[in-house]
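Appendix B. Raw example, untouched.
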Amino acid sequence: MISADFAPNESFSDVVASIATLLRPWQWRKGKALFKVKQKLKRLFGSDFEVALFLTGRAALYRLFQSIDLDKGAEVAVQGFTCEAVVLPLIQLQLKPVYVDIEKESYSMSIEDLEKKLTPQTKALILQHTFGMIPEDRKKILEYAKKRGVIVIEDLAHGFNNSLFKKTSTEPQSDFLLLSFGRTKTISSVFGGAILTKNKDTFLPLREYEKTNNFPSMLFITAALWYKPLSWVFKKTYDLGIGKILHYLTNSLQILPREISFKEKRGEFDPLYIKAYPNALARLLLKQIKQIEQINRKRLIATKKYKMHFLKSSPIFELEPIIRFPLEVNDPEAVLKAAKRKRVYIGRWYDKVIAPKEIPLNKLLYKTGICPVAESVCKRIINLPTTVSDKQAERVLDAVVYEAS
């Protein structure tokens, strides 16, 4: 099974790590792995960062905005072409999302549209690194936000180029970094999120939230730990039909915890995931952090291969091991169906301006026409899996190249 959505970067070593952790229930909530994860993240981004860990990226964002303590009704600029996990925490805290359109080089926030929509009430901005690409207008946006006194949170949930944030970097810096360790992200512990900052004043309340958050239940942790072993089995046997049946049964019986709850799919904030990050998942994340260079090399090879076929003249994707390769086609559903017949499962981040598509847009305070570029892209976008072997990348090309050309 080749899939952009389902357990894209799980290996057998991750399965072993999960099973080993399942056998140590006394280490599930607290333990040394939490400290080690923070140290590893500081090595990746810079020792001058403070790190706070939470059960999910949206929990991290929610607690961050509580720490910033903006007035009710304050505006927060977010891009169209994003996920409800970015928006629901804002609405829950009675903040107002202001949707900014995207540019089409990196599918990130457009500086031109931001300048039109930013007002004196705009107090913060979330700059998304879509698919793990560096935003085309990043430098201009950071400089503009600084001039206007707007707090900038860089959303690195899809992936990151950590060299941007090192002490030696000459690039402009944001106020906060948001990471996610969800099951479809660049490094995964099934659930997880973090805020990194050099702002000591804001970090103190963040640390308090981190300490006082309740841990998820032992049953929840058990289910999360079974995700990697079961998903590995599903993928290995999916094309035989066995994995497909097992996957259907586990979903029907709700054996594994959902990435997005039923409540969130209705467009409602769900406090279920506003929890502390357990040591059990930190153990899984340590394994992925150790593998990140190997995983990224694989992504870079696939990305270059796709680029040679689809975007030969484009300068983007050259040096970035992106988590998914975006491609705009005339009939996305036809491409997906054709690829599926060849047992290749293509992704659709995002087929709606704020995904998933089940959420009524009015609940997210979005009105059609606000972000025309994003709305147009959503109708045409597909994304190819990049965490694949060279042979699998060839299978992907065989499955989509003619339909997408």
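End of appendix B.
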